[in-house]
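Key result, reporting period 2: structure in, sequence out.
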């Protein structure tokens, strides 16, 4: 009779794949302080996918605090599909894609007058990984 096929390890048979780790998601202002009004600074969102799986359906929406708005021109640079409208009050990433073991960034210039602006946490979602939040960031703009 034919020999039976080897039995695969029972620890992996029939179990669903482990969930992906959430990507790393950070937000920052550059410069974040020691700037004088009126000023244009860069806000950056960086996504690091350290999983071996491409992420699709990447989404976030950042509503800027009152007094902070997208510069004209916004000078957007992005490697994962972000968008912003000059003069607007939000920055978004809709249906972005990020390859396995890759990093992408969305940078947008924003304008501000005198004040302290606290930009709250933003949630990044995708089709494959659990949601992740950025930390809040603060921009301090002084008098000229």
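The corresponding designed sequence is given below.
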């Amino acid at each position: 009779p034919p020999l039976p096929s080897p039995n695969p390890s029972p620890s992996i048979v029939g179990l669903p794949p482990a969930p992906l780790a959430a990507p790393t998601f950070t937000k920052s202002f550059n410069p974040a302080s020691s700037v004088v009004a009126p000023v244009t600074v860069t806000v950056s969102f960086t996504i690091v996918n350290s999983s071996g799986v491409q992420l699709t359906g990447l989404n976030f929406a950042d509503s800027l605090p009152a007094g902070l708005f997208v510069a004209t021109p916004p000078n957007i640079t992005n490697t994962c599909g972000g968008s912003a409208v000059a003069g607007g009050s939000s920055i978004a990433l809709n249906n972005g894609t990020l390859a396995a073991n890759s990093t992408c960034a969305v940078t947008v210039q924003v304008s501000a007058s005198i004040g302290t602006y606290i930009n709250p946490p933003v949630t990044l979602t995708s089709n494959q990984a659990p949601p992740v939040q950025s930390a809040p960031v603060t921009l301090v703009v002084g008098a000229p």
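The domain at 25-142 is CATH 2.60.40.1530 (Immunoglobulin-like). The longest strand covers residues 39-49. This case is discussed further under Risks and Mitigation.
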